[in-house]
């Protein structure tokens, strides 16, 4: 009798929902707000502790990496001046993507730099603090993956597995320990999805407002926010009831997003020439023409980005992510009466599609921290459904021992453990501590010398109060050959790019161990002397 009454009540609720203009979940359980179990909080705290223990030491000990020369120092200038800029790249070549970036940074929108600023105010200056801003955003993203798994699947274990695996995945930890805005943008996108889910299950307009604000902030962090802007927008249109119930929330979403984007206008109006020179060259032009054509013919771009994520995640994690999504698809398409898991499937698949067609020829791997989170939700779903079905055939302890072993086999290779161990073994070695390594180099040079410095150490030189110019010779970004120097510091990237040869440098000495990929290494040069001239370096 109780079961029959419950079924009748559920059917009545569903009928009422269909008549309402606002959305309402067919299953009342999806709107239920349960408190988070203490056990889940402890597990998530453990996940965060592992991330902090393994990643933070490397953030502070490694030299600057790809793009960190551009995206670290604007947070420092915001903290001390209020304007994001790159003081050591005074480009005046209109063809360069960072034209007038020493006045203001418009190569990407500024939200990430304002997010970095409090970290620079509270912690020691350097690449490590710039990266920690990404790390904190990453921890929030991991928490949101758990909350999304809990929300869409009404299952603690699914959310925990998804969050735990995501936290040690290569699609997550690379951007989460790099001073780039990818992780912050992805985090805001995951939060926007959670806000949209709350609207879907409660019908309260404040959640649409929240989703719009989050999408707008995400767009102020990185243009790939267009991926989840499209997802949330289509979701609101599909989930509403009637024309008013569909267009009203979508209009609120767009209005809130645009209102937040207007926060960038004062900075744009203050530096219009820098904005035109940087944003159009670095973002709009690089996205490539024909986005409408890519939407209709996405397959070449799907292949292009599949190759990117394969290179990033390595084959075994790549296979795990996509097999997990395929498994979740086979599981939940057979349960079409449960709308929330099907909604998550739509979000995961559309995330892959929108990322490929919107980013087009871009080859940056960090973008994958957003769709990667949705793929690992599919992995968590597949693991938990498979475990419940296997319970009838395999003893529970044996099953979970096998699943844990498989997870370790998939996630440990390429997880950065070798780098972490190398730094532990050489903890007191200055060659494994980039700030101390850079300080040793700078002490060998006169305080008033003009330095052209490799991206790996350029922030350290600038923060040391040196007369610093970025050592990059790729015309699209910056032409350091246009600026005179007294000493040139070239790191591994500069050696690969033959910077010393292009800047007519004469070798003086080397620092560090070139053969150890985990150690710092740099070479010192000065401009080649005319015949008979005396050397200026006497150390």
Give a quick set of tags describing it:
539 residues; mainly alpha; 5-stranded mixed sheet; 24 helices; 5 strands; disordered N terminus
Structural write-up:
The chain is mainly alpha-helical and 539 residues long. It has 24 helices and five strands. It has a five-stranded mixed sheet with strand order 2-1-3-5-4. Helix 6 (127-153) packs across helix 18 (369-390), helix 9 (182-202) packs antiparallel against helix 10 (205-221) and helix 10 (205-221) runs parallel beside helix 12 (242-261). It is globular and about 80 Å long. Mean pLDDT is 88; it is low at 1-32.
Distance between the termini: 92 Å
Rg of Cα set: 26 Å
Instruction: Please summarize the sheet with the most strands.
Output: 5 strands, mixed
Overall, the morphology is: globular
Topology:
Layout: H1 2-19, H2 38-61, H3 68-71, H4 73-81, H5 111-122, H6 127-153, H7 156-167, H8 170-176, H9 182-202, H10 205-221, H11 226-239, H12 242-261, H13 265-270, H14 272-287, H15 291-296, H16 299-332, H17 339-359, H18 369-390, H19 396-411, H20 417-425, H21 434-443, E1 450-453, H22 458-463, E2 467-470, E3 487-490, H23 492-496, H24 499-502, E4 505-512, E5 521-527
Parallel strand pairs: 1-2, 1-3
Antiparallel strand pairs: 3-5, 4-5
């Amino acid at each position: 009798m109780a079961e029959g009454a419950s079924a009748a009540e559920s059917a009545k609720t569903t009928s009422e929902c269909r008549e309402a203009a606002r959305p309402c979940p067919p299953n009342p359980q999806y709107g239920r707000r349960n408190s988070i179990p203490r056990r889940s909080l402890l597990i998530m705290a453990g996940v965060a502790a592992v991330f902090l223990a393994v990643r933070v030491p490397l953030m502070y000990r490694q030299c600057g990496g790809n793009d960190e020369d551009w995206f670290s120092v604007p947070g420092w200038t915001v903290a001390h001046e209020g304007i994001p800029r790159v003081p050591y790249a005074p480009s005046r070549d209109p063809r360069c993507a960072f034209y007038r970036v020493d006045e203001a940074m418009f190569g990407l929108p500024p939200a990430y730099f304002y997010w970095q600023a409090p970290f620079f105010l509270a912690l020691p200056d350097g690449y490590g603090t710039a990266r920690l801003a990404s790390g904190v955003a990453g921890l929030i993203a991991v928490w949101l993956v758990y909350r999304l798994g809990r929300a869409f699947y009404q299952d603690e274990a699914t959310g925990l597995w998804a969050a735990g695996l995501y936290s040690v995945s290569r699609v997550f930890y690379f951007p989460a320990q790099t001073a780039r805005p990818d992780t912050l943008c992805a985090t805001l996108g995951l939060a926007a999805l959670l806000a949209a889910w709350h609207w879907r299950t409660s019908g309260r307009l404040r959640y649409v407002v929240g989703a719009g604000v989050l999408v707008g902030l995400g767009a102020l962090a990185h243009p790939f926010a267009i991926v989840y802007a499209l997802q949330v927008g289509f979701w609101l249109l599909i989930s509403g009831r009637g024309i008013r119930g569909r267009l009203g929330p979508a209009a609120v979403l767009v209005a809130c997003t645009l209102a937040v984007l207007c926060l960038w206008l004062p900075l744009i109006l203050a530096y219009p020439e820098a904005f035109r020179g940087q944003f159009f060259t670095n973002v709009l032009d690089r996205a490539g023409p024909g986005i409408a054509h890519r939407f209709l013919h996405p397959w070449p771009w799907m292949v292009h980005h599949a190759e990117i994520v394969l290179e990033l995640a390595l084959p075994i994690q790549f296979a795990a992510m996509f097999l997990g999504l395929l498994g979740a698809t086979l599981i939940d398409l057979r349960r079409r009466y449960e709308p929330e898991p099907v909604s998550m499937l739509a979000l995961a698949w559309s995330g892959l599609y929108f990322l490929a067609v919107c980013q087009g020829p871009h080859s940056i791997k960090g973008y994958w921290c957003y769709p990667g989170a949705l793929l690992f939700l599919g992995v968590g779903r597949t693991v938990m459904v498979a475990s419940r079905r296997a319970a009838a055939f395999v003893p529970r302890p044996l099953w979970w021992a096998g699943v844990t072993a498989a997870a370790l086999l998939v996630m440990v290779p390429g997880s950065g453990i070798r780098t972490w161990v190398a730094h532990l073994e050489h903890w007191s070695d200055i060659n494994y501590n980039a700030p101390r390594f850079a300080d040793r180099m700078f002490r060998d040079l006169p305080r008033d010398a003009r330095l052209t410095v490799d991206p790996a150490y350029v922030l350290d030189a600038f923060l040391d109060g040196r007369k610093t110019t970025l050592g990059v010779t790729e015309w699209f970004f910056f032409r350091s050959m246009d600026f005179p120097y007294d000493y040139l510091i070239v790191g591994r990237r500069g050696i690969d790019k033959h910077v010393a040869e292009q800047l007519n440098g004469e070798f003086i000495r080397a620092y560090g161990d070139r053969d150890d990929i985990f150690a710092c290494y740099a070479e010192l040069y000065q401009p080649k002397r005319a015949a008979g001239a005396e050397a200026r370096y006497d150390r």
